[in-house]
Amino acid sequence: MARRYVLEDQVGHLLRRAHQRATQIFLETFEDAGLTPTQWAALARLGEAGAASQNHLGRLTAMDPATVQGVVQRLEKRGLVDREPDPDDRRRTRLKLSAAGAELVAKHTADGALVTARTLEPLTDEEAETFLALLRKLA
Predict the structure, then answer these.
(1) How far apart are CA 97 and CA 79, in angstroms?
(2) Are 92 and 86 in contact (CB under 8 A)?
(3) pLDDT digits (tens, 9 = 90+) for 117-128
(4) Contact of 35 with 103, CB cutoff 8 Å
(5) CA angle 99–116–96, rounded 5-degree value
(6) Which of 65, 79, 105, 129 counts the highest number of beta carbons within 10 A?
């Protein structure tokens, strides 16, 4: 006998609901920064990497080329990201945090960790650790 399909038991449905929860927590936490999760991911990665080509930044943040292009354009427009010549390839430019971008990243890095903590709040520490390990495996 075939198992009955129950939407609430399906992985895609549950992941989407968990993502909605995480996104809402992110938007509440970063409200004064006026950033989207993808914009924050780009800024945080540039904060870690120092500088990266747009293509490389897309790979570092798991964004497709069209998405990372739009994210970078919005960040440049806000003065949070600058372009500089790539010292290894004059045909290419690298993205780096502007002074304002670096200040924003420094100010909100703890908020990024808070989003994770608030998202995982319903779980015990052991459950959260297991959940994150399983998500990494799926990703």
Answers:
(1) 9
(2) yes
(3) 999 999 999 999
(4) no
(5) 20
(6) 105
Secondary structure string (H, E, C) spanning the chain: CCCCCCHHHCHHHHHHHHHHHHHHHHHHHCHHHCCCHHHHHHHHHHHHHCEECHHHHHHHHCCCHHHHHHHHHHHHHCCCEEEEEECCEEEEEEEEECHHHHHHHHHHHHHHHHHHHHHCCCCCHHHHHHHHHHHHHHC
Under 8 Å between Cβ of 95 and 53:
yes
Residue-wise pLDDT tens digits, 1-31: 667 899 988 999 999 999 999 999 999 999 9
- Residue 58 amino acid letter: G
CB 64 within 8 A of CB 58: yes
Integer Cα distance of 58 and 52 in angstroms? 9
Q: State the pTM of this model.
A: 0.89
What is the identity of the amino acid at 45? Answer: R
Instruction: Take residue 11 and report the two structure tokens written for it.
Output: 């992985």
